[in-house]
Write a structure and sequence with these properties.
This protein is an alpha/beta fold and about 325 residues long. The protein contains 13 helices and twelve strands. The structure holds 2-keto-D-gluconic acid.
Length: about 325
């Protein structure tokens, strides 16, 4: 328990209301111009802060944690995914790590459905056609996409976001298939009329749309490997609103180039923010819709993510276990 206001370092610009409340409650160092922290600045921060508030753009690996001072007790991540933080190294040093679950579930699920429809119904190409003045009037055979109603959706990772995607997709007339480490509760399976596949390979070969909704961990790195992408049906599409690293991006590019699968909707990329010329070319050809990691980018989500960060810090200050604590066995 800390008697005075603890020293908090926030690595990126957060919504004003969140920053204001943080300044009221803590001895807070903000990053008003939002310049991402260099590694050196991050190391400097872990040497002085009692609590660090990083985001997905900060790589807090074993080496950074190793250089943290004794005063650092909490890393309160502004974000759900914690693949940017070495959780085991933090635990070994007695540093608690928290995230911001739940509050971005619905927005990320909306984005997943949005991408699914955008790819299948060629939103991107339609917008381009209008911007470039290529719309010369309605035609019965122009801009034909593919129907998603009645198709099979295979969800990889049936956690909070995967389940929210399933609920929406069911309403859009897709039948729900899923692969998960564990089968979800029978009641949820019944509600969604979902089919469970213990074998990811089996599921990939049988569905029309694949949605990636699992966390990025060492076990899910390149889970969608070249071999697995090759199992997908030629007319199928893949949507990723989780983490780029879960799909072998080079293999995905090759499959799209060779027409082995029909399309991809990517809100996240491997090696973000870099985007390869090959991928951009596929985007220009209408085979990929690529977004700049916008899944949780609503005013409401970002505000509520900030509130969760504050709750986690406050609970820790009061000597309790922060509600969103991540333990090494959880990743
Ligand atoms: C966040 C995300 O905006 O929360 C996550 O895991 O991927 C994003 O939607 C980002 O991580 C903020 O750190």
């Amino acid at each position: 328990m800390t008697a005075t206001k603890p020293k908090i370092i926030v690595t990126r610009k957060l919504p004003d209301a969140v920053e204001t409340r943080m300044c009221e409650l803590f001895d807070t160092e903000l990053n008003l111009d939002d310049t991402p922290f260099s590694r050196a600045r991050l190391i400097e921060a872990v040497k002085t802060a009692e609590c660090l508030v990083p985001t997905v753009t900060d790589r807090i690996d074993r080496s950074v944690i190793g250089q943290a001072g004794e005063q650092l007790k909490l890393i309160a991540n502004f974000g759900n995914g914690v693949d940017n933080i070495d959780i085991a190294a933090a635990a070994e040093k007695g540093i608690a790590v928290t995230n911001t679950p739940n509050v971005l579930t619905e927005d990320t699920a909306d984005m997943t459905l949005g991408l699914m429809i955008a790819v299948a119904r060629r939103f991107d190409e339609g917008v381009d056609a209008m911007r470039e003045g290529r719309f010369k009037g309605w035609s019965p055979t122009w801009m034909l996409g593919r129907r998603i109603w009645g198709k099979r959706l295979g969800i990889v990772g049936m956690g909070r976001i995967g389940t929210a995607v399933a609920r929406r997709a069911k309403a859009f007339g897709l039948s729900i298939h899923y692969h998960n480490r564990e089968r979800v509760a029978e009641q949820v399976e019944q509600e969604l009329e979902a089919t469970y596949w213990a074998s990811l390979d089996q599921m990939l070969a049988r569905v029309d749309v694949v949605s990636v909704n699992c966390p990025h961990t060492p076990a899910t790195f390149h889970l969608l490997s070249a071999r697995r992408i090759a199992l997908m049906q030629p007319g199928s599409i893949i949507v990723n609103t989780a983490r780029g690293e879960i799909i072998d991006q080079d293999a995905l590019v090759k499959a799209l180039q060779e027409g082995k699968i029909a399309g991809a909707g990517l809100d996240v990329l491997e090696h973000e923010p870099a985007v390869s010329e090959d991928l951009m070319e596929l985007s220009r050809q209408g085979k990929a819709v690529i977004l700049p990691h916008m899944g949780s980018a609503t005013i409401e989500s970002r505000q509520e993510m900030g509130e969760r960060v504050i709750i986690n810090i406050r609970t820790w200050m009061d000597g309790h276990r922060p509600p969103d604590r991540i333990l090494p066995n959880m990743v």
